[in-house]
Amino acid sequence: VVEVGQPEHSAVTTCAYCGVGCAFKAEMRGEEVVRMVPWKDGKANHGHSCIKGRFAYGYAHHKDRLLEPMIRDQITEPWRIVSWEEAIAFTARRFKEVQAKYGKDSVGVITSSRCTNEESFLVQKLARAGFGNNNTDTCARVCHSPTGYGLNQAFGTSAGTQDFDSVDDADVIVVIGANPTDAHPVFGSRMKARLRDGAKLIVIDPRKIDLVRSPHIAADYHLPIKPGTNVAIVTALAHVIVTEGLVNETFVRERCNKDEYLDWAAFVAEERNSPEATEKFTGVPAADVRAAARLYATGGNAAIYYGLGVTEHSQGSTTVMGIANLAMATGNLGRRGVGVNPLRGQNNVQGSCDMGSFPHELPGYQHISNEAAREAFEQEWGVKLDAEPGLRIPNMFDAAIDGTFKGLYVQGEDILQSDPNTKHVSAGLAAMDLVVVQDLFLVETANYAHVFLPGATFLEKDGTFTNAERRIQLVRKVMSPKNGYGDWEITQLIAKAMGLDWDYKHPSEIMDEIARLTPSFRRVSFKRLEEEGSVQWPCNDEHPHGVPIMHIDKFARGKGKFVITEYVPTDEKTGPRFPLLLTTGRILSQYNVGAQTRRTENSSWHPEDVLEISPHDAEERGVKDGDWVRVQSRAGEASLRAKISARMAPGVVYTTFHHPQSQANVITTDNSDWATNCPEYKVTAVQVSPTNGP
Ligand code: SF4
């Protein structure tokens, strides 16, 4: 970290990495960050931070950052640096040409969970009001879309039920498919403090993550499931709760739909769903499942925290609903210390979903087929909206290969590196007539772009992010955009060039429009956020100061809905050719595809992705620690260095995807969640063999 002198000015803003949403005071000298000081009044972090928020801001000034727009007619041609006027005119003209030739539905947008609420709102508005279709999606598609679907089914809202502070009152903490100490470090530390104070811990994860055993903490139960069997283990836990008489009858009677509960209880009670019957394919001893279920149901306040190890599966939505079933059956909802808590990945993934980025939902999760909701938007925007849902991200690539989808505007997401089955993504991008990438760097996706629009960092813009606990917080500009414009301004320039009469002067005006159109944001404004520091939605006439804990007296949908969670094995099978299961995740010092963290001081902490492999599997293949190995799947192959790790169970290997050269997503399949198309990153059958190098 380079100290650049005493600060001249500062502002409190919000971290642009993970969904914890830590507040920082950015201390600046001119346009240089002197330091990022964790903000003591930050309601998500209470003065704490991790090494990403504290130190990984250098990307804002990195030499790789592009500050001038570029265009080219064909992706085989070199880029031409042009003025903003020419780039915007080129973009608008080409979108119009594509729509004139292939129809209004031939183009679409992808919003970014790295950008602000206001920016995501404008990008989806461009699709709906400008392009005239609902072809808008977001990178939540590839992470927490099953959370949105599953929790909406069960409770009527697509969000976590608690605030982070609530963990202080948990007696039992269940962590499923999440690694908070690496991926959500500030909340992970908070959780550890509660565990050191005596809360019990159940970890359900194929790996021995840090929480299973770290100084002064040992999980009471670690259920090391075989990847892909989440639904079976969650249903087996429910089997024990129902058949051993551990259901909270009062809660279920008063709060949930009786007939749905009875159907569900009969289903989970079937012998085929018992821990003994499922042990042979989950790999978890039945006695441990029984003991964990008893602890969850009878140990006092029990809170479930889960991550992408739950959602990124072919049955991701089913597992989310299974977790909701467990919480309802035991009455672990509606007060402090309990709940169903998705640990959202990116800084604003909750917000990008809230802002109507999905092809079937307007802002505030109002279904596009809802006539009254559509009418409100039509009146505000002065256009007629299409009532049919648009294309999801994977369907955009499919349609591009079929020749019916020809133009895409991607704001702040490197889909080529982050989405599964890279070959399919690149084929889809290559088949398009117009790909517009708005980003900080020439990311992998830009290899297929015709227009590159340089974006702005969080230090260069005003706006809001919404964290994993539905907390809306201000992002404050501490330096002028080095590229000349904030991301919201660039979208507005495109809209104007396409003939739309947008005239926002400041992101606060965009938030005012969001509040007018979104019932759960009705009383949100920049003024309120300035005065109150932050607010957790819903923030409306009934709850003008927000709601830290949801579903206290009744669920948003009325009666809680139990859903039958039939386990369906994934199509991805191991066999003699591909005998191991690969699962993927993140590491503390790096962030997702690494576009930002790799360009900061943090890069030295994790210079390459490695393959974690059990001592047993390594020995069987003659692989030593640090050797290069080839990882082959049905989709492709990659080369990585091996890291022999006792964290790994035999039969399971693990890698991260922070470096493009590791090609981790070349090997992942294109299986996806049945309800939302969220990719099944967590289960890929592979073979691992020694090789000489990359
Ligand atoms: Fe940023 Fe998340 Fe670290 Fe907080 S925990 S500083 S939000 S990356």
Automatic annotation (TrEMBL):
The keyword 4Fe-4S applies. Residues 8-64 form the 4Fe-4S Mo/W bis-MGD-type domain. It comes from the Bacteria. One of its GO terms (cellular component) is membrane. Keywords: 2Fe-2S, 4Fe-4S, Iron, Iron-sulfur, Metal-binding, Oxidoreductase, Repeat. GO terms for molecular function: 2 iron, 2 sulfur cluster binding; 4 iron, 4 sulfur cluster binding; formate dehydrogenase (NAD+) activity; metal ion binding; molybdopterin cofactor binding; NADH dehydrogenase activity. Signal peptide: none annotated. One of its GO terms (biological process) is formate metabolic process. In the C-terminal section; belongs to the prokaryotic molybdopterin-containing oxidoreductase family. This is Formate dehydrogenase subunit alpha. It comes from Methylocystis bryophila. The lineage of its organism: Bacteria, Pseudomonadati, Pseudomonadota, Alphaproteobacteria, Hyphomicrobiales. The chain holds residues 241 to 934 of 959 of the full protein.
